[in-house]
Amino acid sequence: MSIPTELHDLSVAQLAAKLKSREVSSVEAAQHFLARAKTHQDLGAYIHINEDVTLAQARAADAAIAAGTAGKLAGVPMGHKDLFVTQDFPTTAGSKMLAGYQSPFDATMVTKLAAAGAVTLGKLNMDEFAMGSANENSAISPVRNPWDTSRVPGGSSGGSAAAVAARLAPAATGSDTGGSIRQPASFCGITGIKPTYGRASRYGMIAFASSLDQAGPMARTAEDCALLLSEMCGPDLDRDSTSLDHPAEDFTLHLNDSLAGLRIGVPAEFFGDGLSSDVRAAVDGALKEYEKLGAKLVPISLPRTELSIPVYYIIAPAEASSNLSRFDGVKFGHRAKDYSDLVDMYKKTRAEGFGDEVKRRIMTGAYVLSHGYYDAYYLQAQKIRRMIADDFQTAFQDCDLIAGPAAPTVAWALGGKSDPLANYLADIYTLPASLAGLPGLSVPAGFGEGGMPVGLQLIGNYFGEAKLLNAAHQLQQATDHHLRQPTGIAK
């Protein structure tokens, strides 16, 4: 059976249909994408590949398809962000601290997708412990943007975004703490969704900031994200204390609903001086498309948008300083070779194992939690976080969805933002929804400076994923931005 040359251009939905009809075998699909991953190693997207494991999973998927017992994603190859632990692949979280670590169990996300028949191609690069906005903080290597390899792919799920954009995988898992699915999806011209906090299990996802971290899918289309998210969500109460007791849902059911009468809130704070003109033009174009589809644009205000940056960069480092204390060289991961006593081992292990950004956030977090500063910083940040969430609820009284840019600019050059604060400011539009625990997605909206992709961010109310995906799907039916692919990537 010959493999169609356009196999890697198929969406998840299209590929799943071909696999189900046995027009293409799972083994052939896996081999095809593994070959592409090898060809484009220069992007730095994949950091762990095990062909034997991948092909064994593909053969099992073929057998399930032949027996008529296959799940909806049977044989569909995909990559996993290296934040999700896996039995058959190392899990390093992009850090020297976990070099060579092999988990004795799979993360719930990995288990759920495997149960649906998905085949794991490998583990994808990321900012160390998910801390970053550019994927330059990886201890393994930086990831390059397939649209322009001199630029960043966004972070921390940059490896996932780059792999999907370069057609090295039809889909990938990502995680979003302050925008780490939505921002790289915007920079790489793909679709990515962060569900309501607690809808997707965090079990087996290496924690950065426990009250913010959320898993989600990244793919080229909203339809694909709907297929993947349907399999990823659902209660995991026995293993994840932050999991919500909310039933799983088929997010594909309402993709084709009419948008007539849909009220889309447009926050003034998302269109201020910090927004570049090229991004604004693309976002404005997408909003006009929604008006053509029957939606109504409603001016709204999210008055505490600017406060989301200091609030996030107090709360997230505080939680990180606690979560990362477990990496001490005692039970697993990196351990310093030369030390005089236990305390010296702790110090040297952590100094050697953690990168600069991780150390910066651990120290910031320890400071804001320390005696005398907890009330002044951490407690005040939590109060403002509640106010930010309340601002959204006030806005949703006048609208059904909120729309705006996913990032203030297109992807910048590698090394272009060496100042950490400049990177932090780039998260201004994604942080508010994360702090409120709301679902949000980025969908391709056009192109800006240098022909680089621009993402439109859509934010929904709690458990509003189906409405978000419906709106994104309808935009993709009316436009072709998501069909464009990086010109520098060979077919």
Automatic annotation (TrEMBL):
Its EC number is 6.3.5.7. The active site is at K81 (charge relay system), S156 (charge relay system), S180 (acyl-ester intermediate). The keyword Nucleotide-binding applies. Residues 150-159 have a biased composition (Low complexity). The keyword Nucleotide-binding applies. It is an enzyme of class 6 (ligase). Keywords: ATP-binding, Ligase, Nucleotide-binding, Protein biosynthesis. Residues 29-469 form the Amidase domain. It catalyses: L-glutamyl-tRNA(Gln) + L-glutamine + ATP + H2O = L-glutaminyl-tRNA(Gln) + L-glutamate + ADP + phosphate + H(+). Residues 140-159 are annotated as: Disordered. It holds the Pfam family Amidase. It comes from the Bacteria. Belongs to the amidase family. GatA subfamily. Allows the formation of correctly charged Gln-tRNA(Gln) through the transamidation of misacylated Glu-tRNA(Gln) in organisms which lack glutaminyl-tRNA synthetase. The reaction takes place in the presence of glutamine and ATP through an activated gamma-phospho-Glu-tRNA(Gln). NCBIfam families: gatA (TIGR00132). Heterotrimer of A, B and C subunits. This is Glutamyl-tRNA(Gln) amidotransferase subunit A. It comes from Comamonas squillarum.
